[in-house]
Amino acid sequence: MPLENHERARFLLHRSLIEGISPEEQHWLDAHVGQCAECGRYADFSARTVRALDWFAVELDPAAALRVENVVRSRAERMRSAEAHAKSVWTATAAAIFLTLTGSAVAWRNLGWLARQWNLPTRAWQIGFVAFWLLPSLLLALLPLFRRRLLGEDSDRNGQTV
């Protein structure tokens, strides 16, 4: 028999034991298992294994379940607060960038006028503007986005980036 038939039989067998399969698939599986000794043994072994697992019962310690539930709730709450904090950081960063660009537009015009009054070369005052006004402002505006990395809060105890 082709290998695909055995693989299909095992796949259908697994699905039939867990979630069920359609009547057509069940008919094909029954016919194949009836003809193929290897798949028949596999089906028998799988059915016995599932029955054995059904007999195996685990009692859950209520105190342990409560501890797990508390840990999960605590982690979910920390994640919600971190998400809210991240939204506020993005909002503050967007506002800072907007104010930086708006202030830069106003300062650009005024510094251009002042440079013409003092007969400064155009390139000189433009380079000075970018170096001493715009670049520091943008770096400070973007600082909250990189706060965790700069403070080393983006790695776990082993130094792995999270």
Fold and architecture overview:
By secondary structure, the chain is mainly α. Helices cover 80% and strands 0% of the residues. It is built from six helices and no strands.
Helix-strand makeup class = mainly alpha
> What overall form do the CA principal axes indicate?
elongated
Share in helix: over 70%
Strand content: under 5%
Cα distance, first to last residue? 50 Å
Mean pLDDT: 83
Number of strands: 0
Number of helical elements: 6
Uncertain parts: none
What is the N-to-C succession of helices and strands? HHHHHH
Q: Whole-number radius of gyration?
A: 34 Å
The major pleated sheet works out as:
none
Index terms:
mainly alpha, 6 helices, elongated, 162 residues, 0% strand
Give the helices and strands, then pairings.
Layout (H helix, E strand, L loop, with lengths): L2 H16 L4 H13 L1 H19 L6 H56 L4 H21 L4 H5 L11
Helix pairs in contact: 1-2, 1-3, 2-3, 4-5
Concise summary:
By secondary structure, the chain is an all-alpha fold. Helices cover 80% and strands 0% of the residues.
